[in-house]
């Protein structure tokens, strides 16, 4: 096993590159959210024209009603809303006339029609491909299909509120469900087959054009998820499947009361006992989907914030040590090099920093955090390190223009003086600073390339309403943006 040294000369970031942060749901299109159809390929073309080498996205899993990709129904499954209906027509699995009102229709009935179509003799090759997919993904797919079916059959209730035999996975009860719902379960598997087929077609297209896909893996999984239901022994739950403590973070920059996420904590002792097999399988699958992975809330591998389940906020929690060294030793044994970026924002102790540096994992630097203190602020461009990813802002931040507009005139003047370039205005002044920095990878949210204001941000941490729905239109992108970005990439050697 070779672990990257603290110098960062090896590892996930081996050359200077630039990229754009945009979740596929934010792509244009006629449906309720962006998907993996033609607009995704158009976006890859835009990235290539702009000299970008990385497309960063958020987690791809199916979401609950709040649409948060960080509280997915599965750590493996893809969001069915990302399936492109137009691709199904292109492949000949749907007739164009079956799509009467794009965006007005719901996707599941159309996906069901495609499923029925490939069951016919003329689609034998596709049917074989589907069967191979089912066999190769059975370890997670069968539990996910059962979970989705049962959730639908119980009016969307979480698994912990199902009848006891189903909640506790009685083998006889599940056998009866499989027997009585064979076709419905097959349709759910087919849905995932479509997602994976479309995803890898898009990824191949991007990779062919020199663009890596930068994925996102939340450290925790949602309580109401197929993963917790199927692997209860790996989580800190009581005999009835209820958590006594939940995940979150203490008060910080984003929230005065902290953030009570509500995810169950891992039973780390149990996971360590079996060699962290759950984590190894999870990472093995994610490394098929992505070229580079950001692990959200990396500090939770050193110590995590444990909140009593009956608390309404995250204030009254405590830090509990986690076996990060042991886990990352195992990950490096299996995957070397390990193409992982550590999301190391928030309350970062010397111990967390030591864990990240031991394994040579690049950290994240946010330029919007750089200017509210003195010259030793670690986010200031002159304090950045090569083995890092620099952002103007992330999906959890305001847009750069929105952020700047809310600052005092004095702080705005200070930033302008520091960046020493009066020929440009925000957000391009900060974009240039990111691209010029020593950080090996510079990422800019699409909103910043479009100079959008605060009303166009993706997420406001600590809130549950009005998030994750942002979308753009190509008509909103100023002409010449790709050329302008490409010029900066060339100038700063990215």
UniProtKB/TrEMBL annotation:
UniProt-recorded Gene Ontology molecular function terms: 4-alpha-glucanotransferase activity
Domain of life of the source: Bacteria
GO biological process terms, semicolon-separated: carbohydrate metabolic process
Assigned EC number: 2.4.1.25
UniProt keywords, alphabetically: Carbohydrate metabolism, Glycosyltransferase, Transferase
SUPFAM superfamilies for this protein: (Trans)glycosidases
Catalytic reaction annotation: Transfers a segment of a (1->4)-alpha-D-glucan to a new position in an acceptor, which may be glucose or a (1->4)-alpha-D-glucan
NCBIfam families: malQ, PRK14508.1-2, PRK14508.1-3
Record family assignment: Belongs to the disproportionating enzyme family.
Name by which UniProt lists this protein: 4-alpha-glucanotransferase
